[in-house]
Amino acid sequence: MDRAGVGKVCLAMPGVTLEHPFGDDHDAYKVGGKMFAIVGGEGGLSFKVSDIAYEVLIETGRAAPAPYLARAKWVHLADPADWPDEELADHLKSAHALIAAKLTKKARAELGLLLPM
Questions:
Q1: What is the pLDDT of residue 29?
Q2: Which of 15, 47, 76, 95 has the greatest number of C-beta atoms within 10 Å?
Q3: Overall domain count for the chain
Q4: Is 109 inside a domain boundary?
Q5: What CATH number is associated with residue 80?
Q6: CA angle in degrees (0–180, nearest 5) for 116-10-23
Q7: Which InterPro entries match (predicted)?
Q8: Per-residue pLDDT for the chain (117 aa), expressed as one digit of tens each?
Q9: Strand partners, 29
Q10: Residue 29 structural domain
Q11: Are 53 and 65 a contacting pair, CB within 8 Å?
Q12: Cβ distance 9 to 92 under 8 Å?
């Protein structure tokens, strides 16, 4: 998946915004003002994963610890095009869900992330 593909997947999720806090060559995808994925200037992709996914992806060599964000269980893919599109899209959706779950109930409701009862 290339930069445009990552953008298409991320921006299709509810409440997502695209910002450039690290310069125009970095795309930061946020939900509720909190990042869940970043595409770097050279095309590398970093995103949030669960604790278990972090261990599996790092131990199997499928991903590297993300610079500056590994302590928060983020992984880095030097070339996201090496991954099957569907699998990467699933990881991005999980990253979105992990970050969205940490938002307040009010923030999730405002973003349309809560299911009506």
A1: 98
A2: 47
A3: 1
A4: no
A5: 3.90.1150.30
A6: 130
A7: YjbR, YjbR-like_sf, YjbR/MT2646/Rv2570-like
A8: 999 999 999 999 999 999 999 989 999 999 999 999 999 988 899 999 999 999 999 999 999 999 999 999 999 999 999 999 999 999 999 999 999 999 989 988 888 887 554
A9: 18, 37
A10: 3-100
A11: no
A12: yes
Cβ–Cβ under 8 Å, residues 32 and 99 = yes
Distance between CA atoms of 100 and 117, rounded to whole angstroms?
19
Entry pTM: 0.91
Q: How far is CA 88 from CA 81, 96, 110, in A?
A: 9, 12, 27
Max CA separation in the chain (angstroms): 44
DSSP 116: P
Residue 51 lies in a domain: yes
Residue owning tokens 């669960």: 50
Within a domain: residue 116? no
